[in-house]
Write a structure and sequence with these properties.
heterodimer; A: 335 residues; mainly alpha; 18 helices; 0% strand; B: 237 residues; alpha/beta; OB fold (Dihydrolipoamide Acetyltransferase, E2P); 2 domains; 5-stranded mixed β-barrel; 5 helices; 6 strands; 33% helix; elongated
């Protein structure tokens, strides 16, 4: 009989991620009291608080980013973007840098948006410029900087110029030497079933929700990984580093650049942290503020997840060096 | 990871954000003004997950008839990491930063200009002050507005070496950027309280103790101290 031959096949237990998820949840609930006592070590307690704090603080901004990404995919046809962006790479890079002013969020929001811009046919150089400019030159971050450094408006100007220069230089470097094959194919792929202008509204909303959902699942995991690394370093890096720096300008610049990467602070908060280091001169603080939003461990994890590992291992070190140099130049000229 | 699993994880994650956003636990991790962001973000994550589940259920039959296997897109295994914040929030619920962070992070003076001007303290026998205000005045107020005045402070106990500190963490965005402000308690038997006990204390500053040599940690002569429950917002900003 047909049903008899089919039944055993169906009944065979297939372990999928769904069963694994259920198992993990059940185990976690059963072991809760043990779990809590494991986390009762002071260092682990501090680390877990910082980990949850970074996730809780960054996830809403990532959600904002994936919503914009979804909106671009669903409602902005690729040909419109092509028409808006200038033909020349250099001009496109400049426009993309200025467009960063319009996304008031921190760095996590700009990653999915930059990726979607690439997918919709914007030149990668311009999309990467936007990626670096958006978290650093938007009005929210600049106002926060002005509040953190009362009576020093030159700090705001220096931060703006340093970050803007970083973004544009990286865009131009990519236009000259960047190779498309470093970026994984899935980041550049147009969405399947995208209706280019002709789709009905119901279809467009479905595209919007599906794009946002996929982006969120893909980059959310990497955000968590970044938060995990940042929380670990946050607990392990001794606070005494800051005290040793007073009076050493070169050492101060180097250490503050490294700290910007390992602490992975939100670009809206880093100005206050920098301002509280009263022993340091302004230049190392500026380096901290320019490097942090451009590249840190959390962003590195997000880049690796979104654009692929071979992109991230090339992009991150170059961005670090370029940002540090731009900050030092801007600081020397203005401060 | 299968699509169904992703959607369940999204529902759990959105639920976790909404939970701490509504019950007030979010104050342990971020500043109060982040609440609307947190609620909106959690709601959107929840909605994206639920929308996908409902859509999959509605189209499941059509897909089975058409024989379309939907496993065409397998994102990285990284999505499993989304479990970590979910488990951390629902099961461990990490507490607010306390004495361990104070010892770990060197006390940093609040960002105050040397030339900052401080209004005189309001009249009254006991003046309640925030720790940040107290530490700024103790370190930078040339007019000595604290001297001879009895003030009331709220913070938690931290034993650091031989000194007993009253501390409060200051955050500007989230707990990752927290740094402590502290005063050193003298008089009474402050050492009797264990770490992380929240105290409401009254007393007076010892003039001239908040210097660079003491890392701007002023001495505070206790007049009274009694334990209080931890405040809803454990941080100052």
């Amino acid at each position: 009989m047909q049903t008899a031959t089919e039944a055993p096949k169906r009944r065979r237990v297939r372990i999928t991620s769904l069963e694994v998820l259920c198992l993990v949840l059940v185990l976690a609930i059963l072991a809760q009291s043990r779990l809590v006592s494991v986390f009762d070590v002071p260092a682990l307690r501090t680390g877990s608080t910082v980990f949850v704090a970074i996730c809780v603080q960054a996830l809403p901004f990532l959600v904002l980013g994936v919503l914009i990404s979804g909106a671009i995919a669903a409602f902005v046809p690729a040909r419109v973007l092509r028409k808006v962006m200038p033909r020349g790479q250099a001009a496109a890079v400049g426009i993309a840098g200025l467009a960063g002013v319009a996304l008031p969020g921190c760095e996590c929001a700009s990653v999915p948006v930059a990726r979607r811009l690439m997918g919709q046919g914007v030149a990668p150089a311009a999309a990467l410029t936007f990626l670096l400019a958006a978290p650093a030159v938007n009005p929210v971050v600049l106002v926060a900087t002005a509040v953190a450094f009362p009576g020093k408006p030159e700090m705001v100007l220096a931060r703006f110029l340093g970050s803007f220069a970083t973004a544009v230089v990286m865009g131009l470097l990519w236009a000259r030497w960047g190779k498309l094959e470093w970026i994984v194919e899935r980041a550049l792929r147009r969405l399947p079933g995208e209706t280019d202008g002709s789709g009905r509204w119901a279809g467009r909303w479905r595209t919007f929700a599906e794009t946002a959902r996929t982006d969120l699942v893909e980059s959310g995991g990497f955000l968590v990984l970044g938060a995990l690394i940042a929380a670990t370093l946050n607990v392990l890096v001794p606070g005494r580093w800051f005290d040793l720096l007073a009076g050493h300008l070169v050492l101060g610049v180097l250490v503050m650049a490294v700290l910007a990467v390992v602490l992975a602070l939100c670009s809206e908060a880093d100005a206050f942290v920098a301002a509280s280091l009263t022993a340091l001169p302004l230049l190392p603080k500026l380096v901290f503020l320019v490097v942090g939003p451009a590249i840190d461990v959390k962003l590195f994890a997000l880049h690796a997840g979104t654009f692929g590992r071979s992109f991230a291992v090339r992009f991150a070190p170059v961005t670090f060096v370029v940002a540090a140099i731009c900050a030092v130049v801007a600081g020397t000229v203005i401060l | 990871m299968r699509r169904e699993t992703q959607n369940i994880l999204l529902v759990l994650l959105g639920g976790a954000l909404l939970k701490i956003g509504i019950n007030g636990d979010y104050l342990r991790y971020v500043k109060p003004s982040q609440q609307p962001w947190l609620l909106a973000g959690g709601a959107v994550i929840l909605a994206l997950g639920l929308f996908a589940i409902v859509r999959d259920l509605v189209t499941a039959r059509a897909r089975r008839v058409a024989g379309d296997e939907h496993g065409h897109h397998h994102p990285a295994r990284s999505a499993w990491l989304l479990m970590l914040p979910v488990l951390a929030v629902f099961l461990v619920a990490p507490p607010a930063l306390g004495s361990d962070s104070v010892i770990r992070t060197d006390t940093r003076a609040p960002a105050t200009q040397a030339s900052a001007s401080f209004p005189p303290l309001p009249p009254g026998n006991v003046v309640p002050l925030t720790m940040t205000d107290f530490v700024s005045r103790a370190g930078w107020d040339g007019t000595g507005s604290l001297n001879g005045r009895t003030v009331e402070l709220t913070g938690f106990v931290t034993h650091n070496g031989n000194s007993v500190l009253l501390a409060r963490m200051v955050i500007t965005c989230c707990a990752a950027d927290a740094f402590p402000v502290t005063v050193r308690l003298t008089g009474l038997r402050a050492a009797a309280y264990p770490n992380d006990t929240w105290l409401e204390v009254t007393g007076q500053v010892v003039p001239g103790t908040a210097t660079r040599a003491t890392n701007y940690t002023a001495d505070f002569t206790l007049a009274s101290a009694h334990p209080v429950p931890a405040p809803k917002d454990p941080y100052e900003s």
